[in-house]
Amino acid sequence: MTRTPRAALRLTAAGLGLALALTACSSGGGDAEPAASGSGGEGGLTPVKLQLQWFTQAQFAGYYAALEQGFYEDAGLDVEIVEGGVDIVPQTELANGAVDYAIAWVPKALASREQGAGITDVAQIFQRSGTLQVSFADAGIDSAADLAGKKVGNWGFGNEFELFAGMTAAGLDPATDVTLVQQQFDMNALLSGEIDAAQAMTYNEYAQVLEAENPETGELYRPEDFSVVDWNEEGTAMLQDAIWANSERLASDEEYQETTVAFIKASIQGWVFARDEAEAARDLVVAAGSQLGNSHQLWQVNEVNKLIWPSPDGIGTIDEDLWDQTVEVALTAKNDQGATVITAEPDAEAYTNEYVEQALAELEAEGVDVTGEGFQPLTVTLEAGGA
Amino acid sequence: MSRAARAVRPVLVGLAALLLAGVLWELVKVVVPDTGLHLGEASVLPRTDDVAMPHVWDVAARMLEPETGASGAPSVLVATLHAAWFTLGVSLVGWALGVVGGMVLAVLMQRWSLAESAVLPWVVLSQTVPLVALAPLVVGWGGRLQLGAFAWERWMSVALIASYLAFFPVAVGALRGLKSPTDAQVELFRASAAGWGRTLLSLRLPAAVPHLLPALRLAAATAVVGAIVAEVSTGTRGGIGRLIISYAQAASGDPAKPWAAIVGAAALGLLAAGVVGLLGAGLRRYRHAEVS
């Protein structure tokens, strides 16, 4: 082989390029740790990125409280809260290594797991489902069975399965016995009578209808104007907001395991703060840049608290019965396209109480009330437009 | 026409157009029934009640009221202007990136016809990729990018997505423009022993200006649209896309609020196209016949 200087130069260049590419890969992407690598960061704090499902709002009050009240910092963490967007899928961001933890609904995360996302539920913050089917009281829809023959709104995109499971359990065929309507963000379709029952979260859309003016009275609608179907009562509720961690790193990275315990612990402290100081929690969410009104945010803190407290086993503990119910619904409930959320039982890695139990033990030793047995919700008065 | 009248005219036309839009809006509210127009089961025209389509004056009044009940909350107008300013900046970055990218592609395609047959189909294909599918991917890549002290921020993803829309009209328009000199003109340059670079600078680029200006304006509009959609898609804080979605969450109880932000977004598109129009004034020498 003859090696001209030119060829040597070319080889060197190629080698350099390859080396650069490798460095870029190992420092930037793939399965390398994105943030929590060693004790770097400000003042020895471990940098952590948390991906939310949506914009800053009181649904995430506990995390913002933990950040603003310094619980994360006390736990040795430098947490950055990453807001979601319409097309941001938190569990995908987590699986591809862009963030360290993500908040996601259990059924959606299980669907992502089935498609190969290596993620684990490490703390089930919301113990109950916040999804309702709301209708006007005079429509006479008080249970899933009453939906027969009605125009039923739903959001689709994986938010519809509790509704479909509920209708199926009530003996209805979702494909033929009701008229399904794709619903928008707002509740205008329900208020204008275009649909009979609308999907709503207790902490958001349900508040929206109570912030709207009733044209008949000239005042805001009242709760007694509406009737709600609650999937917790119908027995088809699915677990919602949970903290998910990267399975691979949990299995191999001891530092990440410690970070996980610390992160869960501080997050729980944040949620305890939101329970005990709901108005202060509202204020710091508003200060963090939420564009929803004050009364709406306080309503949201309060409703979210109701989804968490009381937590008899301790906040964040994954209740096996509710988990099994979620999996059962995810396996069996078919939507109007005939699809189920998942096709096979999730493996044992899907959730673990290992880390939340450590966090709870530490908190109990410090005398923190992690069950909230005596929790009393506030009575929040909503203003027009949530102002 | 006097010089002053000539300067005032576009402003008057713009105001008249705005007024007309408002009158049309109110007219639709009067003519179309509150429940909208249905043909059988299919909805042909949307609802026109005050919740779905608030009165123009309600929207205007809402702009002057505070955004939320929180103390120190800015008025909706101020919040909208802030957000529009942010989005304008991001779109301009995206536009500039798109223009550079589009120009480079056009010059390459003009230089080598092999490049044209190889690249042009991809350029067209690129615009069929749905933006909402692309946006989370770009954010995902960006989230993992860290080069020394330089950290990729989310607005950069938004600018990149805006440039992805903006480069297309530039590439296509510039290519047509670069090819627009007649054979006789090109041959004259060749006969004078002018190389490819000299021909490009002195013949092709000036000849491309009339094709390029509408392309640049179009690119400005698409950059704004791209930035807004990308903001909605990725939830980037600070911009008008995000503001619209945030406000839309209050649409049932406070229907004028999201419309105030939507008006802001429309004004932003007009402004961006207008700014690029100023560029055209600077290139007046070459604008003998603008092609659209």
From TrEMBL, chain A:
Residues 58-280 form the SsuA/THI5-like domain. Keywords: Iron, Metal-binding, Pyridoxal phosphate, Signal, Thiamine biosynthesis, Transferase. The keyword Amino-acid biosynthesis does not apply. It holds the Pfam family NMT1. The keyword Ligase does not apply. Pathway: Cofactor biosynthesis; thiamine diphosphate biosynthesis. One of its GO terms (biological process) is thiamine biosynthetic process. InterPro entries: NMT1/THI5 (IPR027939), SsuA/THI5 (IPR015168). GO terms for molecular function: metal ion binding; transferase activity. It catalyses: N(6)-(pyridoxal phosphate)-L-lysyl-[4-amino-5-hydroxymethyl-2-methylpyrimidine phosphate synthase] + L-histidyl-[4-amino-5-hydroxymethyl-2-methylpyrimidine phosphate synthase] + 2 Fe(3+) + 4 H2O = L-lysyl-[4-amino-5-hydroxymethyl-2-methylpyrimidine phosphate synthase] + (2S)-2-amino-5-hydroxy-4-oxopentanoyl-[4-amino-5-hydroxymethyl-2-methylpyrimidine phosphate synthase] + 4-amino-2-methyl-5-(phosphooxymethyl)pyrimidine + 3-oxopropanoate + 2 Fe(2+) + 2 H(+). Residues 1-26 form the signal peptide. Responsible for the formation of the pyrimidine heterocycle in the thiamine biosynthesis pathway. Catalyzes the formation of hydroxymethylpyrimidine phosphate (HMP-P) from histidine and pyridoxal phosphate (PLP). The protein uses PLP and the active site histidine to form HMP-P, generating an inactive enzyme. The enzyme can only undergo a single turnover, which suggests it is a suicide enzyme. Belongs to the NMT1/THI5 family. Homodimer. This is Thiamine pyrimidine synthase. It comes from Cellulomonas marina.
UniProtKB/TrEMBL annotation, chain B:
It is found in: Cell membrane. GO terms for cellular component: plasma membrane. Residues 84-280 form the ABC transmembrane type-1 domain. It is a multi-pass membrane protein. The chain crosses the membrane at residues 7-25, 83-108, 120-143, 155-175, 208-230, 259-283. It comes from the Bacteria. The keyword GTP-binding does not apply. This is NitT/TauT family transport system permease protein. Gene3D superfamilies: MetI-like. Belongs to the binding-protein-dependent transport system permease family. Keywords: Cell membrane, Membrane, Transmembrane, Transmembrane helix, Transport. It comes from Cellulomonas marina. Its main location: membrane. Pfam families: BPD_transp_1 (PF00528). The keyword Transmembrane applies. GO terms for biological process: transmembrane transport. CDD domains: TM_PBP2.
